[in-house]
Amino acid sequence: MPVYRIRPLPINRINLPKEFMTHYHGFGERVNIVNYSWYIEGSKENIIIDTGSTAKLLNWRFAKAEDIQTPEEALKPLGLKPKDIDIVIFTHMHFDHIHLAKKFENAKFVVQKKELEFAKNPNPIQAVDYFRKVLDLNYEVVNGDIEIVTDVKLLLTPGHTPGCQSVVIRTEKGVAVITGFCCIDENFNPPEEIKKYLHMLIPGIYMNDMEMYNSMLRVKKVADIVVPLHEKKYSEVEYI
Q: Looking at domain 5-236, which CATH architecture does it have?
């Protein structure tokens, strides 16, 4: 059976109001997060999760972003180029997670049916986070939980978006789950004053708060290692 490691590929640094990440907490504070692609090392197929964006586009939305590296630069130490990637998993279709997809010209793009349908016709209140026109890509549309290669599974975790999916990867250290929803460590491990009445803190960007909470519970139940999608500490490690 394959043994996997997860390679964080940091693409952008973002400084934003903390309440974007911590629901009803941190007003007036700011937090540093990182926008990643993630490479799944150990599969016969070259698989990444999300493609990232550019600081130029993120600055329009978030005001304070800077590029760390391009996808080409991120993949070079692995001996790869974007054209070598076989599978791209979209956690969801917000612009900052799919913007650079066209660079991966030979990949198939795995997306949940509900997510692609919503991206084609988003509610106006959510449309700011989606492109006006869905990217023309080689989509593989899935519906619900599914194993895409041995011991790499997709877990439907809605709430942040209708078809948000987390990625479950069996590593030598246990089952790691990269959350499909935008969060940081503090969401799963809130400060003690919050833990007195709430053992988890949902992210500040969501479509359905109860679905969001239930998806966090689902991730915690499955995972030995929770990998929050925007936690900055992973930009400082070679692999998980």
A: 4-Layer Sandwich (3.60)
